[in-house]
Predict the 3D structure of the following.
Amino acid sequence: MDLLSNTEAHTLVARGPAQLALHARAAAVTRERFGPHVFVRGVVEVSNHCRENCHYCGMRRENRGLDRFRAKHDQLAELLIHHRPASMTDVNIQTGEDPVAVREVVVPLVRTLRRETPLGVSVCLGTLNEPLYDELQAAGAALYIIKFELATAARYEQVEAPGTLAERVRHIRLLAARGWRVSSGFIAGLPGQTAEELLANLRLAQELPLDGCSVSPFIPGEATPLACAAGGDLDTTLNCMATLRLMRPDLVIPAVSALNLTGADDGYRRGLRAGANLCTINLTPAELRDDYLLYKRERFIMNEERVLNAIAAEGLEVSPTGMTEHWPTKPALAEAMAG
Ligand code: SF4
């Protein structure tokens, strides 16, 4: 069945019983593939320096009112080796697009964590270059998170998303070909976004060599050109997640914390009911977290208790295995061709 036929365009705006049925189908497909298990990872936000200027993000380079920080390797290593929540199997190391932080903090931290912990390591560091991707991979990172954000080139350029859409897609393919597991993602509900543009996002997610994909509702970010725009709609975001799950039953789809910033208290839990199978505990030290300004200073911080409560309330269980254990090791393209 072509899930992206014209008929399916209507599912993106489904409400009431039709929406419940869509989400129930997505949840059933998730359970069939992953059982009752939800992956739990921690995230540490290492640097809020960013050379990019995305209109939808408070860390854009033109936001001069932001205190910029780079966390220290030793502080994060201590936290993740000795004080991490027992439920997490993976860690995601995230920065603005800041190659200095990648070289000085992230690469050594990946190395330390792979040596000292059993954690699977994901990184979300923006568009870098091949030597730096290779260095991160050699240090032991296995999953690269690189969102394409929106699949329409003109709109991508209009909101100054990183580089060009073509370049971003090229890097996604390049990372996958070099043996990385790759997760991407897009934003639902950017001002003026049409149903056709949302479908284009889903189509691109279907085509790309991805192992995971997120759908984030647009949240108007403080000190951004879109600060006064209306936020994305939770229902449409959840419908995109459910459609993505039905298109690609194998994907790891996170419940993003922004689901709870759309005005509904139960957005996060509804994400788990619409096909999500990954929760994230925010572990960034509190004194740095306020300046990691993805949206607003009042972020909805998912601590371990909130994550575990949401999983239990949905009748689900924390996965005993991590994402990187779930996926078999992937040979780099060159090795695969030689083999
Ligand atoms: S979305 Fe990422 S690349 Fe864009 S400004 Fe924010 S931190 Fe930088």
